[in-house]
Each structure stands twice: as structure tokens, then as C-alpha cells.
Amino acid sequence: MSSILFEVKNNIALITLNRPEKFNAFNREMALLLQNILDQCTTDDAIRAIYLTGSGKAFCAGQDLGELVGENPPGFEVILAEHYNPIVSRIRLIEKPVICAVNGVAAGAGANIALACDVVVASSSAAFIQAFSKIGLIPDSGGTFTLPRLIGFAKASALMMLGDKVNATEAERIGMIYKVFPDETFATESFKIAETLSQMPTKGLAYTKAALNASFNNSLEEQLLKEDELQYKAAHTYDYNEGVKAFIEKRVPVFKGE
Ligand code: LHQ
After folding, report:
1. Assigned architecture for domain 202-248
2. Which of 204, 229, 235, 240 has most Cβ atoms within 10 angstroms of its Cβ?
3. 114 with 106: CB under 8 angstroms?
């Protein structure tokens, strides 16, 4: 059985982390496979939204700690550079929306990969743990960049040092994630978001993502210029023309992602 399940249906790439007995923890093979799948999502024009979730009880428990003490463990010099950093970079740079459906606990790199996604939703029984401090490591996979921006410095700092378990409702309340859905309806409700995004103007969403990525480091003046540049591009898409035309004609637009 593959460590990640991957299928493409109706313009949506469905990626399921699939080592349920290990709470979908990453080993080297799985980390490289996820990069490869994200590359396929980048180049396949039929894919207009990416839905990332986990199989079984957990979303992802981060690094497979067993691998670190097993035979031929990957060295610390390659774990971030070759496993996690390329995953997070791909998620932020892919010109398509990535929806993370956190179906259960998300710990360590698993939590920070989830938080790097564009829309993060969780099932009511899910939780987020910056587990690193408990084993003497520092938060990685972009966590020290992403979390303070999502929830503010004070909370991020405390959660990263204490390694508290944050349940899904609290994660939503403090702005760490977008929404919580009850366990019973989670799969359907979270997938609906992917369906909606997959039929929206894909290029416009990509430019929105590029503007948000840039806003983390820009001054207001720089960001206004960025918006100008990206709005110009958006205005030259098929979908912009279709959106305006459909509005004037009082009909539902049919976007092509072009
Ligand atoms: C696991 C794991 C796991 C293997 C659960 N590995 N089996 C970067 C730089 C370099 C090196 C290191 O890594 C990194 C990135 C990182 O991600 S560091 C952080 C690594 N992750 C953790 O420290 C989290 C460890 N796991 C936990 O704290 C708990 O398992 C959580 C809170 C996720 C879930 O707790 P419970 O619901 O009580 O479940 P459990 O602990 O009983 O786990 C269920 C099974 O999954 C169990 O297997 P078993 O055969 O005993 O039933 C665990 O061994 C296995 N598992 N996490 N990371």
C-alpha cells in the first residue's frame, strides 16, 4: 500500500497521507513522494484545487520518530533541506488553492504543513500540537514563520515552547484555522470547499495567493504595487471576462481556470 493515495477527479487532486498505523508520520519515502505528487499537481492543468487529508484517526504526526533510530536513518543535515522545506515551499508556491482537511491530530511537521495551506479546516475531534519542544527540537516546516502571523507572537511563542495541544474549536477561535466541522459531516463539508474552489477563476486565486505571500514581507507601498501588477494580470484572464459578462447577463459564470 502506498504511503500516500493520490487521485484526480473533477478538477480536484485528492491527496491522502496513508500510514494510519503511524498516525501518517513522514518517513523519507513519503516526504519525497508528497513532493512528487505536488509537482504533478503543478503541471497538470486539469487540476484546479488540491485537497490534502489523512487516512485513519490522525492527520499527521510529523516526522516518523522510529525512522530516526532505525537502520540507515536520514541525517539531520538532509531532513529539513530534502524532506520538509521542499513540501512547504511547493504548497506556498503552487498556483492553485490547497485545502487542508485536518481529520485528526496534526503534530510537529504535520501541524506546520497543514498551517501552510491556503484554507485549513478541521474535524471537531482534531487537534494541533507544536510537539517539537517535547523532544528538544525547534519548530520547523515554516512554523516559526507561519504561526506568529496567524495567531500573533504571544500565543505562538507560548504554544511552541509549551507544546500544548490546541483543540480544533480553540484553533478556529484564535484564528489558526478557517473552520471546524463536526466529525460526522467533516468529510463532506470540507470537500465541498475544494469543489467550490475548483470551479472558481483559478488564475485569480493564484494571483491572490501570490499577493498574500508577498504581503508578509512588503511595506504598504510595495504591496500596493504588487496588487497593481497582479490585478493587471487577473484582468487579462478569460475568467475575468466571463465573470463580468455573466454578471451583466444575469447568469451563473462558467469559469475555465484560464
Ligand atoms: C508515531 C508518531 C511519530 C512514529 C504517533 N512517529 N510513530 C524535523 C527535524 C528533524 C528530525 C525530526 O523531525 C522533524 C519534524 C518533526 O515533525 S519533529 C516532531 C515529531 N513528532 C512528534 O514528536 C509527535 C509524536 N507523537 C505524539 O506526540 C503522539 O503520538 C500524538 C500527540 C501525535 C498522538 O497521541 P495519541 O493520540 O495518544 O496516539 P499515540 O501516541 O498512541 O500514537 C498512535 C500510534 O502512532 C502509536 O503507535 P502504536 O504502535 O504504539 O499504536 C505511535 O507510536 C504512532 N506514532 N506519532 N511521530
Report:
1. Orthogonal Bundle (1.10)
2. 204
3. yes
